[in-house]
Design goal:
extended, 15 strands, 40% strand, 17% helix, Rieske Iron-sulfur Protein, 2 domains, single chain, 4-stranded antiparallel β-sheet, alpha+beta
Length: 147
């Protein structure tokens, strides 16, 4: 292969790689990071964070990820019913890596541990369930007890 064809081939491969990366990134935008506010011992999340407006129609999210500057890890907040939520600390109990959310389960990118929507171990190497927080619903606010 001559130099010119080699450079053209490399350019096409790089452009294709950038396109694939953009496509893969767009596939992961289903995660929603909810706005939150810490008030005393509680993290407050608006129940409206679970509603997505899709083409003028309200669609319910099953979970949101809650971040705060004061927390080292996000919280996976899963909607069980209108009045019941599961709040899970997204730190792997194996070696402390931040977990990734995939719908109704969480996985550890470091060593492959998997957990269900309630924080229970599905697959090791982790042997301990995830830390859970108590939640309560007060009107339009979901309160997560941080202590």
């Amino acid at each position: 292969m001559d130099r010119k064809k080699f450079i053209q081939s490399c350019g096409m491969i790089c452009a294709g790689g950038v396109g694939i990366a953009a496509l893969l990134q767009s596939c992961t935008t289903g995660q929603h990071f909810a706005s939150s506010e810490i008030n005393g011992s509680y993290l407050h999340v608006a129940a409206t964070e679970f509603t997505l407006n899709k083409k003028g129609e309200a669609v319910d999210r099953r979970y949101v990820l809650v971040r705060s500057e004061k927390l080292n890890f996000p919280i996976y907040l899963y909607k069980i019913s209108e009045q019941e939520y599961s709040a899970i600390w997204m730190e792997c109990t194996h070696q402390g890596a931040e977990l990734s959310a995939h719908g109704e389960h969480l996985s550890c990118p470091a060593h492959g541990s998997e957990f269900d929507k309630l924080g229970n171990v599905i697959q090791g190497p982790a042997q301990t369930n995830l830390r859970k927080f108590k939640t309560q619903v007060e009107g339009p606010i979901i309160k997560i007890l941080l202590s």
